[in-house]
Amino acid sequence: MIRTHVLGFPRIGAQRELKVALERHWRGEIDAASLEATGAELRARHWRLQLEAGLDRVAVGDFAFYDQVANLIQLFGCEPRRFGFTGQEAPLQRYFAMARGTTAHAHGEGCGCGATSGEGAAALEMTKWFDTNYHYLVPEFDGATTFSLNAERLLAEVDQAIALPASPKVALLGPVSFLYLGKSKEEGFDRLSLLDKLLPAYEQLLTKLAARGVTWVQLDEPILGLDLEPAWQEALRRAYAGLRKVDQHLLLATYFSPLAENLALACELPVAGLHVDAVRAPEELLEVAMRLPLDRELSVGIVDGRNIWRADLDATLARLREVRELRGGRIWVAASCSLLHVPMSLREDASLDNEVRGWLAGAVEKLDELRILKRALWGDEASVVQALLDARAARRSREKSPRVRQLAVAQRLAALPPDADRRVSAFPARRVAQRERLRLPAFPTTTIGSFPQTPEIRAARAAFKRGTLAGDAYRDAMRAEIEHAVRRQEALGLDVLVHGEAERNDMVEYFGEQLDGFAFTANGWVQSYGSRCVKPPVLFGDVSRPTPMTVDWTTYAQSLTGRPMKGMLTGPITILQWSFVRDDQPRADTALQIALAIRDEVADLEGAGIAVIQIDEPAIREGLPLRRSARAAYLDWATRAFRVAASPVRDETQIHTHMCYSEFNDILPEIAAMDADVITIETSRSDMELLRGFGGEGGGFRYPNEIGPGVYDIHSPRVPAREEMLRLLRKAAEVIPAEQLWVNPDCGLKTRGWPETEAALRHMVEAAQVLRAEV
Ligand code: GLN
Ligand code: ZN
């Protein structure tokens, strides 16, 4: 018996229909019923695709208007009390209130916000879903949290699938991962203590689903791929021993990471089937196949759910046959994880050339791979011969393409001297040389790079891309923006200026478009959170830099001012992390290739007289492997890649790096090992708490180089008072010696408008001046 299924499917729609409908609904242009209709239509369309591919069951429960974890908060009736819901509001209203927050206003008939209390409530916190770029809404738990089942929405979706007609497999996050991914809102509260209250709600649900005719329920427990404390392992045992009472087939799903020491546990839990990620942990597959009792189903996640390459069907079939053999002829075949993390389809993408397009598979193409695998495993190979041959040809084309491998890149990598990642001198000597050259005041002020991306800038870029604005005219327009930004910074009295990044659409795409080895899709959208989608570049080949990428803009900006102009680059790890990356060589090698391209740019900027160069690495933390045992190796190559990019320069050239959204305290020595002369970080929202680690609190590691802790939040138009920033700076100066401190906002200002930007920066510069007068 061979079965195929998917753990989940993209829900945003091939043309981002859900995004469009959501945003229209939030603007009040369409009502809830019309939004619901779009949702229903998308579900039906996506189930049909699954049926056409011959999946045995379609995934139900993976659809969400914002986030699948937020769905569970409503499903199990644990909406945080702080939202002040009365229960009179429509569920969808409450849902969006949790997802997006509510503002203070008089509530009443038709205000639509979902809340009833006057003050407004902040949205649920959002955080990254494991090591993906998807963000989920964080459930909030405390001692008073209760659970009660509200299954209407889910049951309606089940009914919709049955009516299609299709056999539904309901897919939900399991109880232990649900608690794990939530946040304890009370000091010292152990959210695991809620398990016994939560389980009955799951039991009720499973019973209801059984009564509806649902015979398989997939419960995701991706935390099995993490280093779990014994209490959480025990909780998994307890939870599934409890759920066993219910007459329902449970498929326990794990993904993203090796099971490692949880492997035996995963194989022992009393469920009807186990799904494992054979892409992220291929080395564990045979062990699982042998350990898992033969009366359980084994679902092999072998089509990559996290990347966009066409599968090697020959190799995949060989592996599956081996596993089937061990399993007495029975096996389920699936994508490694939910297909939420790949674009809907790439088969007809208008921006890709034929060659590259032929190497790629989006969700729809991955469904087709499952169809082919099933046929071939059935012994019905004749019907898929052509498909298998095509896949083989695509693979060969990718292996042999002269666009993938470039001799010069390989040679350069091989010849890289071991000290290519070292600056000439250590930081103390560099610091002296830089002070001599830059002559900055104490508490130097700067910004993180971008200035407001005004509608005019966007329109000019769009016209240039369409071809309706000539190259020269576009350049003049951008130069005018640069000049404008420089004049304003001078007027504000900032010390280290930036050119403002007017010419950049996106900090990764801008560089990817100019480097060899990248391709761009027209429609390869992946959901990031809510209605927000990203379109990651496809890094398919050896990376090199044909010509300088930023030197003209930067030297132009420098020519306008006597103050130091900071060159602005995106770092190798961020480019790697925010792209779909090739799977035919280690990520470390790809990172090093990107690093060398950035290194060339750094050298050229220095050669053109630029004295300060910032290499942004906001994504270095998110690349951290889920398993602790894999972290040292990652940090080693990631920080080396950064240093390779940053190190071709003389002592007197100052290298900055910038990171945001990061909790770094656990990797501070590694961040320091990047050896940037100055690091700017986001700290204002944590009230400088994040900085404590940098100061070596409690005898810990002390960050040795200079630091610019962000003194104001750039996510809102609010203009903080001078005193507010002064207070934060004083707090920073308690943990970091004053001579090490810089003054800057949390992050780039591209999403802001000029009025609030100028007002806030004025206060920021004044705050620095007050401090200077004191020393
Ligand atoms: N230099 C970039 C900017 O200012 C940095 C953005 C980021 O860290 N995400 O926009
Ligand atoms: Zn940032």
Give a nutshell description of this structure.
With 775 residues, the protein is α/β, with parallel strands linked by helices.
Tell me the strand percentage band. 5-15%
Q: Got a strand count?
A: 23
Strand order, largest beta sheet:
1-12-11-10-9-8-6-2
Catalogue the ligands.
glutamine, zinc ion
Q: In one word, what is the shape?
A: globular
Family: Belongs to the vitamin-B12 independent methionine synthase family.
Organism: Roseateles aquatilis
Binding site for 5-methyltetrahydropteroyltri-L-glutamate: 16-19, 128, 133, 532-533, 578, 622
Cofactor: Zn(2+)
Could you please describe the fold and organization of this structure?
Catalyzes the transfer of a methyl group from 5-methyltetrahydrofolate to homocysteine resulting in methionine formation. This is 5-methyltetrahydropteroyltriglutamate--homocysteine methyltransferase. Its cofactor is Zn(2+). Pathway: Amino-acid biosynthesis; L-methionine biosynthesis via de novo pathway; L-methionine from L-homocysteine (MetE route): step 1/1. The protein is of the alpha/beta class and 775 residues long. The protein contains 26 helices and 23 strands. The strands form 6 sheets. An 8-stranded parallel sheet has the order 1-12-11-10-9-8-6-2. The longest helix is centred in the middle third of the chain and has 22 residues. It is globular, with a radius of gyration of 27 Å. The protein binds glutamine and zinc ion. The site of zinc ion has 5 residues, from loops.
